[in-house]
Design goal:
The protein is of the alpha/beta class and 254 residues long. It is built from eleven helices and ten strands. The longest helix has 16 residues. It is globular, with a radius of gyration of 18 Å.
Amino acid sequence: MSVDAAEASARAGSAPAGGGDPVLIGDHMTGGYGAADILHACTIAVERGQIAVIVGPNGAGKSTAMKAVFGMLKLREGSVRLEGEDITALSPQKRVARGMAFVPQNNNIFPSLTVQENLEMGAFLREEGIDETMEQVYDLFPILRDKRQQAAGELSGGQRQQVAVGRALMTRPSVLMLDEPTAGVSPIVMDELFDRIIEVARTGISILMVEQNARQALAIADMGYVLVQGRNRFTDTGAALLADPDVRKSFLGG
């Protein structure tokens, strides 16, 4: 889908190319840090149990769009809706309480705490028992069970990312947001993390992800958003974007 079609869909108040109603949508978002806007009428959405990926060149506004959806950036125009409810004015903490979880690229674990303590920290808002969710996280990431009493800061980069994702899952979110989850890990670890992300989506949790490894990310994406200078440049299914010659030439190395 071209930028013109994407903007037309955004003006219509829906996600640019989805099949149903999005669980989460940042609609026509315009804003930045201070006076200068980084996002320009940008629309990002994810449907229930699907994986939506934001890709684009460096400086395209990918992480900014993610932070705007999570409430870490004040919008000058546009809105954010979760399950049809306008949450534009809610703080990130209140968005977590509503079912959103965000894993930043950096500083996403407590290195001096054990793996299990990190996971327990993710359940701080919950009032009921957490043992069942803890077991689900350990089933998803078996290495964390083996290392549950080890300080998280002693783990490999890929294992630390598993801790960060696991801690986010301890909130029992409806939407899991990941900012560059495979940054700095080996290709083998990247493939493993993507496999786990697919498993999470199969449980019904929606995944919204920013990723530099565009080709690999689009291969697992139900929806893809290519941003350029804070605007929607291409929006379509992951498979369609991978097959689009313009996308391949401009963003995937041919």
